[in-house]
Every structure is written in structure tokens, then in C-alpha cells.
Amino acid sequence: MDERSRPGSDLPDSTPHQHDTGTRTDAHNDAHNDTERLSPAEKEFCPAMAAEPRFLTLADVAEVLNISTSQVYALVRNQELDAIKIGGRGQWRVERDRLEAYISRMYDQTRDFLVQHPFSEVGAEDAPGE
Description:
The protein is mainly α. Helix content is 42%, strand content 8%.
């Protein structure tokens, strides 16, 4: 005897219907993962529905920057990259916008460096080892 046929059972009918194409979880996830139909205002109102997560782990940041996790940790500890420590275990998280701001600052610093140190081609007679 299943739960639905038991007298006094308050459990909802969980039997898949003929029109169901997948499990309830899959349909639920599909509805919430489909962000193409959301307007920018809806995405702003409900960041959890946005395609990209708001916060990244240090490993995520390392992957984006193509550096090691320990290098990302050093950037955070040296206050070059803003991050927060959350939870009882004190896990670091970097907000996506802060990472993008850091990347923009690095482009600006690189541009300034290049202006101050212009590239000049060395003639063959001035090349080292000649």
C-alpha cells in the first residue's frame, strides 16, 4: 500500500503525470536556471537567478586570472584584491564586481607602466652577447 492510499495521509500526489518529461527537481531547476527570459531588472532584483554567481572562491579567482590559489590569497592578504571572510571556517569569497575592478586597475597600471617605459628596438650592434 502506498502513502496516498493510506487513510488520513496528508502527503501530496508525487506520481509523475503523463505530461511530465523529467523529475520534479529537473523541471524546477530548468525553470530557475533559464535566465534568458529575465529582464535586467529581474536579474538585479533576484541575483540568485542570474547566470553568474555573485561571489567566487579563491580557486575560482585563480582560474579566471590563470594564477595559483596561493597567489590569489596573497593578493587578498596584501589588500590588492578586496575579499570577505565568511562562515565559521572563515572561507574567503571575492565578489565578481571586485574582481572586475581589480582587473581594470591592473590594465590601468600596465598602461601607465608602458607609457613610462616605452619599448625601443635594440639595433643588432647593441644586442646583448654580440
